[in-house]
Design brief:
By secondary structure, the chain is α+β, with helices and mostly antiparallel strands. It has helices at 2-15, 60-66, 116-127, 171-178, 204-213, 231-249, 251-256, 261-284, 297-316, 324-327, 329-341, 343-346, 351-361; strands spanning 42-44, 55-56, 107-111, 134-138, 143-144, 147-148, 190-193, 198-201. A hairpin with a 4-residue loop joins strand 7 (190-193) and strand 8. The structure holds glutathione (GSH). Residues 24-27, 71, 86, 112, 115-117, 143, 147, 185-189, 203-205 line the site of glutathione.
């Protein structure tokens, strides 16, 4: 199978001049020794705008050693990329005594349009009609040495801007504000609680599940009960998430960030075997979704990777054995339907952020930061 794929890939790459571009990164670390904006040894104060959280003073050197120096080192010594586990894992819940109760205007999402994981949360926020209930800040598309930063107003970055809520310049300030000892990566999405001034959760797979159900007392009637992880599908969704996460969602990163030929080939072959499997599942489905006639979390989690595939991963992450538009007709149709027919998918997809982020942030992969022009268009219209 693998040999087959490789020889087909080689013969194809000789014939077929792909015109493609690029995309992104990253992960995390462990434990959440969290401090809820308490006060000992306080000297720092980075929040502005009527926000009175005080920040622990932490020796700069320690921060630098634990995080900043390796912010652009994606692969481990053996050449394999390993995504770190998310640190903040609290839940919004309407259970009595739960500290994070659902409330209109209380929660905020820090996201990047470039990031497939953050995009999941934006899709679900819109699918559940939560736009007026949960606010959003979008970071600048560039991920630099100090991690994500916010755009200045005069930079005029379309669809990104300053952190009006907490006045941070870098996302890391939000993490350090909650836990000055934080040693993980400063990732998006971040679900922020304006009331307790803390991070509730920074794991997209958990955030989306809270959004399905916990705000139902606040959303308009048409959104109540809309659960993309309904009990009757839960087992199938879990099973699918498991291999799709490993081989596709994370598989593109494992291919792109590999620093040995062996790690790259191992992961890129697994990726295309998994895409073949998805193509087959969709072929057999009563459609138009992975599990038949109902849109589920499995579709929501797969979409952000597939929509970035041709425009970015083919070229930038060397996932170029096949393209979605040319080689996976059923996945292509599924993706076009979600993108063109359901506003929550198209409205949360920003190709300028996506393409610039990957190509201009990963200088270890693309040292001159040139963003490829193609493919044109980013997504084909439904007629093609
Ligand atoms: N497990 C996390 C992963 C999030 C993640 O890796 N986000 C990336 C962007 S795509 C990030 O913010 N990376 C910044 C960094 O690693 O410095 C989730 O699904 O929420």
């Amino acid at each position: 199978m693998s040999q087959n794929l490789i020889s087909r890939a080689i013969s194809r790459s000789l014939k077929s001049p792909f015109k493609n571009p690029v995309c992104s990164q990253a992960y995390f670390q462990t434990t959440s020794s969290r401090l809820l904006a308490t006060t000992a040894n306080t000297t720092g104060f980075f929040y502005k705008g009527g926000f009175d959280i005080t920040v622990h003073s932490v020796p700069t050197q320690r921060r630098t050693m634990s995080t900043a120096t390796n912010i652009t080192s994606w692969a481990s010594r053996d050449g394999e990329f390993r995504r770190q586990a998310s640190s903040f894992r609290d839940q919004i819940s309407s259970a009595p005594d739960a500290p994070f109760q659902p409330e209109k205007g209380r929660y905020h999402l820090y996201v990047s349009y470039a990031c497939p994981w953050a995009t999941r949360t934006l899709i679900v926020r819109q699918l559940k009609g939560l736009q007026d209930i949960i606010s959003v800040s979008v970071v600048h598309w560039h991920l630099g040495e100090k991690g994500w930063r916010f755009a200045e107003v005069d930079e005029k970055i379309p669809d990104a801007g300053p952190d009006d809520l907490n006045g941070a310049k870098f996302l890391r300030e939000i993490y350090f504000g909650v836990n000055p000892e934080y040693t993980g990566r400063f990732t998006v999405p971040v679900l922020w609680d304006k009331k307790l001034k803390t991070i509730v959760n920074n794991e997209s797979s958990e955030i989306i599940r809270m959004l399905y159900t916990e705000f139902d007392s606040l959303v308009a009637d048409e959104y109540k009960g809309l659960n993309f992880y309904a009990p009757e599908y839960a087992k199938q969704i879990d099973e699918m998430n498991d291999w799709i996460y490993d081989t596709i969602n994370n598989g593109v990163y494992k291919s792109g960030f590999a620093t040995t030929q062996e790690a790259y080939e191992r992961n890129v072959l697994r990726l295309f075997e998994a895409l073949d499997r998805v193509e087959d599942i969709l072929k057999k489905s009563d459609g138009p979704y992975l599990l038949g006639k109902t849109l589920t979390e499995a579709d929501i989690r797969l979409f952000p990777t597939i929509i970035r595939f041709d425009p970015v991963y083919v070229q930038h992450f060397k996932c170029n054995i096949k393209m979605i538009r040319h080689d996976y007709p059923v996945i292509h149709k599924w993706m076009q339907h979600l993108y063109w027919d359901i506003p929550a998918f198209k409205d949360t997809c920003n190709f300028e952020h996506i393409k610039k982020h990957y190509t201009k942030s990963h200088t270890q992969i693309n040292p001159f930061s040139i963003t490829p022009v193609g493919p044109v268009p980013d997504i084909l219209p439904k007629s093609e």
